[in-house]
Amino acid sequence: MRRRDFLLSSSSAIAATTFLPSFASSQESRSANSKVNVAFIGSGGWIAQQPYKQGCSDENLVAFCDVDSTHCAENLKAWRTTQPFFEDFRVMFDKMGKDIDAVVISTPDHTHFAATMAAMERGIHVYTQKPLTHNIWQARTLLKAKDRFKVVTQMGNQGHAGDGIRQSVEAYRAGLIGDVAQVFCHNSGPQMGGQHFANPTVMPLPEAPVPAGLNWDLWLGPVASRPYHPDYHPAKWRSFYDFGLGMLGDWGCHTLDTPVWALELDAPTKVECLARRDSLAGVIPAGSHIKFHFPANAKRGPVTLEWFDGPQDWNKVGRIDRFGADHAAYRGLACWMVGSKGLLGCGTHAGVPTLADDELHQAWKKNPPTPSIPRVAGGPFREWLRAIKGEGPEPGSNFSYSAKLTEIVLLGVIAQRFNTTIEWDANAGKIVNAPELNASIKEPVRPGWQYGEELWN
To answer: Which of 39, 74, 183, 274 has the fewest CB atoms within 10 Å, counting from its CB?
Structure first.
């Protein structure tokens, strides 16, 4: 058996026998197949440093790809790599695909899908940063691709691999806060005009010279051509709906992770944009208030989840006037599940829970529920790599889970972008009250960037 075939068969066996949501094991074992050959798409910026520092550097780093050779030069120098470097991941896969077992994708949101599909079609395991995709059709297509190609998949909402989120889910399942009907989540960003978010005064942006080392056409990828402007690249693309998804895309996959897992939230039936600051066409607002409506399931009643971003007067919005808490930012935490017996709060990246009232929290600290969800050893990248090697079960944020979480986030982004209420038919995959918005479910792509269509035929 060839090495690639061994890696695929062993990891597929794991995926076939792992059930959500108890995904991971803390048991380490010796690798039966030595090191994994890992490639990187998106090698510049701090986000690309995560996989290198958090486990991938122990494997064989066989290829690097980035559309901006200047932007990633410092990282490659620090990593002391002499491996092949490519501008275009399609060229990398054509030339080296047989030598690549797994790939980490750390590109802007609008190119996640194309890079991920190109890898999966070749039987290459994928770790894709959050949000998984830029639109809902892409998320559902990657779920189909996971079933078709049987590779190990993982989305980079790293808190999902931590102990803290497991403690939160276990506390809820033990009934410590009772029945939950409300969730409040918030983030104080974006800081428009800061390091990561642009504050343009006019749209479309005027043309500027393309920096040396940047292949601007490849950076655009599937999106319609337009002139370069430094507000797009390297750091502020999240401000523009064509490329990023604002604060919901940036933080929603982290902060909503705990309630989605604990409450087993599937797609909402309705999403309302209750408030939104003004913004130029195609640009995210500096603040918004989004309300998701989730139907009841066999284990709980209906749930509403409210998301706030941007500067807020927390004495007026997101109030929780129960159990000693006065608003959704109580103790500075980013997410609160409101139960009939108490509150459970956690941080932006999930993390260790806080329970309110204080007596409930102290009781939980003294006698927490018996752990029922297996723990992950080594963090999200080690979780993914161990599954590839056949050493551990399927990663927790595999595409069966993360595509669902991403779809929830994307529905909020659509409501925010168009400042409206949308009614969602999950079975049909359509917005039923505003059919003109269905153009956002599957966005047009430029020739040469079509992927995944065959999975729907």
So the answer is: 74
pLDDT tens per residue across span 325-338: 766 556 678 999 99
Pairwise CA distance, residues 143 & 146, whole Å: 5
Residue type (1 letter), 302: P
What is the H or E stretch that residue 415 is in? helix 399-418
C-alpha distances in angstroms, 197 versus 111, 131, 247?
Answer: 19, 17, 10
- In the predicted model, residues of the chain with pLDDT beneath 70 are 1-33, 46, 326-331
Q: What confidence tens digit (pLDDT) does each residue in 256-302 have?
A: 999 999 999 999 999 999 999 999 999 999 999 999 999 999 999 99
Confidence at residue 248, expressed as pLDDT on a 0 to 100 scale: 96
The CA-based angle 26-374-345, given to 5 degrees, is 120
Q: Which of 55, 264, 253, 25 is nearest to 160 (CA)?
A: 253
- Cis peptide, bond prior to residue 230, ω within 30 of zero: no
Residue that is written with structure tokens 């998301």 in the block: 307
Q: How far apart are CA 114 and CA 124, in angstroms?
A: 14
Burial of 216 (0-12, 13-18, 19+ CB in 10 A): middle
Residue 299 within a domain = no
CATH code of the domain containing 30: 3.40.50.720
Domain count, the chain: 1
